[in-house]
Specification:
transmembrane; 74% helix; two-stranded antiparallel ribbon; transmembrane helix; 4 helices; single chain; membrane
Length: 132
């Protein structure tokens, strides 16, 4: 029997693809990623694909295969990376002094990924200790 995590993830993926097909059928979001509709579709699609099930199960407070705190960390990291992607898409060609916004955004996204990995490793390590 499939786990609740699997069912939630399959449902999130199906919803994401239905949204993509509906938007494509209506010719919404088929422009370049600099257009607001395309950018919104991109963020919602990938947000649902990668974080939809985690967000749903975290809101319900269900551990399942992954602890709720870990789900919230993942959703936060994913949201931050998607927001940085929007920043890069909208202002990637701009510069701050002599540094491009794209370089700053990619560096921050890599930093978010590293912080996420450290926090998950720390939580996993602490989870190995028994309560005494």
């Amino acid at each position: 029997m499939p786990s609740r995590d699997t069912i939630a993830h399959v449902f999130a993926v199906v919803v994401a693809f239905l949204l993509l097909f509906a938007a494509t059928a209506q010719d919404i979001g088929t422009e370049s990623l600099t257009e607001p509709a395309s950018l919104a579709l991109f963020v919602v699609f990938y947000g649902l694909i990668f974080g939809g099930s985690h967000l749903y199960l975290a809101l319900r407070g269900e551990d399942g295969m992954v602890p709720v705190e870990s789900r919230w960390r993942f959703v936060g990291a994913l949201g931050t990376v998607l927001a940085l992607g929007v920043l890069i898409a909208l202002a990637g060609g701009q510069t701050i002094g002599s540094i491009s916004v794209q370089s700053v955004g990619l560096t921050l996204a890599a930093l978010v990924g590293l912080i996420y990995l450290v926090l998950e490793a720390r939580a996993g390590y602490r989870g190995t200790y028994s309560e005494t």
